[in-house]
Amino acid sequence: MCVESDGCELEACSSSDEVHTLSGSMSAALKPSARELGACSPRQKCCSALSRLSSPAAAAGILSFGNVLNYMDRYTVAGVLLDIQRHYDVSDSGVGLLQTVFICSFMVAAPIFGYLGDRFNRKVILSCGIFFWSAVTLLSSFITKEYYWLFVLSRGLVGIGESSYSSISPTIIGDLFTSNSRTMMLSVFYLAIPLGSGLGYILGSSAKDAAGDWHWALRVSPLLGMTAGMLILLFVPEPKRGSADQPSSRIKTRTSWVCDMKALGKNRSYVFSSLASAAVSFATGAFGIWIPQYLFRAQVVQKTAVSCTHQPCSSRDSLIFGAITCVTGLLGVVIGAATTRFCRQKTERADPLVCAVSMLGSAIFICLIFVVAKKSIIGAYICIFIGETLLFLNWAITADILMYVVIPTRRATAVAFQGFTSHLLGDAGSPYLIGLISDALQKSYATSVLWQFLSLGYALMLCPFVIVLGGMFFLATALFFLDDRDKAEKQTNQLSRPPSTVKVTK
Question: What's this model's pTM, rounded to 2 decimal places?
Answer without folding.
Answer: 0.67
